[in-house]
Amino acid sequence: MSGLFFTGAFIMRGAGCTINDLWDRNLDPHVERTRFRPIARGAISTEKAVVFAGFQLLAGLGVLLQFPLECLWYGIPSLLLVTTYPLAKRITNYPQAVLGLTFSWGAIMGFPALGMDLLTNPDALEVAAALYCSCVSWTILYDMIYAHMDKKDDISAGIKSIALRHEHNTKTILSGLATVQVALLGTAGVAAGAGPIFFIGSCGSAILSLGVMIWRVQLDNVRNCWWWFKNGCLLTGGGITLGMFCEYLAQTFGLYKHEKHITQNQQ
């Protein structure tokens, strides 16, 4: 199941990039960081890019069909977000929020994949909602750092951005997003009946990694923003994942007597 999710995320992330580059083919040439992308520099025609995106979406559908049928109905709405996200930067200063709604969809998909219908299981819905919103906050956080790399070019190209809207209080916003992310991650753990390993490993590591990233990132330094965007994301995500995996092992092998709240209600 994890392998299918990894494959599906990899394919749909690629499809999102293709669609984004199609929408931005007339904007990317004006931004230093993106002007050498294949479509922007004319290495790939728009027609071929559309065909390629079609094959990516078909491959993603093929992966989705490997899951229980319920996942199909939960997965299809995400396509609307995938295809329209690039438009957000043209109409709002907060396109990162739309990106967060898009990237975090897997937090919802995991439940029907394991046979939990969110519409009929309020306990599972509580966990899914908290986890999803936590991931949305996290995405906005790290993409806000990413957006600082393009501030000068975005102004000249007329691209809207959260980095421009909150250029003078970015670290305050980042700190708020980090607090919300960890609080909601902890809420998901409480609702799911997670044990201390999750809270120490996942929530604790997120607090540490996010705190260091927000403290150390130099928002006016393009290379520094890129380093923290790339590595900070991996450090935070790696810590959360490792904490969840250790919690799973602890419950599987009975290191402490504990039953998940969701499972009790299902029984």
TrEMBL record:
Pathway: Secondary metabolite biosynthesis; terpenoid biosynthesis
UniProt main location, coarse: membrane
One GO biological process term: terpenoid biosynthetic process
Source organism, top-level taxon: Eukaryota
CDD domains: PT_UbiA_COQ2
Subcellular location: Membrane
Protein family according to the UniProt entry: Belongs to the UbiA prenyltransferase family.
Protein name: Para-hydroxybenzoate-polyprenyltransferase
